From TrEMBL:
Keyword annotations from UniProtKB, A to Z: Transferase
Record protein name field: PTS system, galactitol-specific IIA component
Enzyme Commission number: 2.7.1.69
GO molecular function, one term: transferase activity
Record's keyword annotation contains Transferase: yes
Domain of life where this protein originates: Bacteria
Length: 158
């Protein structure tokens, strides 16, 4: 699996009023590098509503994603937030929300790769020091250098 990860897909310390705005910014970045197909954002927002991805670990992390049919090639986008926004809690009830400071958006074109990538990310984000390092990054280049070792070795730079 070759995964696109570069500074074009990273947003650092942004302000957003809510999760939908965060996901819109991230989807726009994926559109900019021709990763997302028509309907990606709508499918992403709908899936997040039904299957929330907020995790109450470290500084609050969300790992949104949508169906492979909306993806042209594999990529990860990462956004850190100046002020946390609320995401629904993964596996929680409808009312359970998590203040999230780091969002890792998976855009994967093969359903079989979702679980493997999700397991890699979930394992990595349990490291509080690692998450604090990502959260403290001030430049997209820093985030790329921190996240790159967490994903498959054949990650793409471009």
């Amino acid at each position: 699996m070759s995964v696109l990860l570069n500074t074009d897909l990273i947003s650092v310390n942004i302000e957003a009023p809510d999760r939908n705005q965060v996901l819109t910014v991230m989807a726009d970045k994926l559109n900019g590098v021709r990763v997302a197909k028509e309907g990606f954002l709508d499918a992403l927002l709908k899936r997040e509503e039904i299957y929330p991805t907020g995790l109450p670990i470290s500084c609050g992390v969300a790992i949104p994603h949508t169906d492979p049919q909306y993806v042209t090639r594999d990529a990860l986008a990462v956004t850190t937030l100046h002020t946390p926004v609320l995401f629904g809690q993964m596996g929680g009830s409808e009312e359970d929300e998590v203040p999230v400071s780091v969002v890792i958006l998976m855009a994967l074109s093969n359903a079989d790769d979702h679980l493997n990538m999700l397991q890699n990310i979930v394992k990595s984000i349990q490291d509080d020091n690692l998450m604090q390092t990502i959260r403290s990054a001030t430049k997209p280049e820093e985030v790329v250098s921190i996240v790159r070792p967490l994903i498959p070795a054949d990650t793409e730079d471009s």
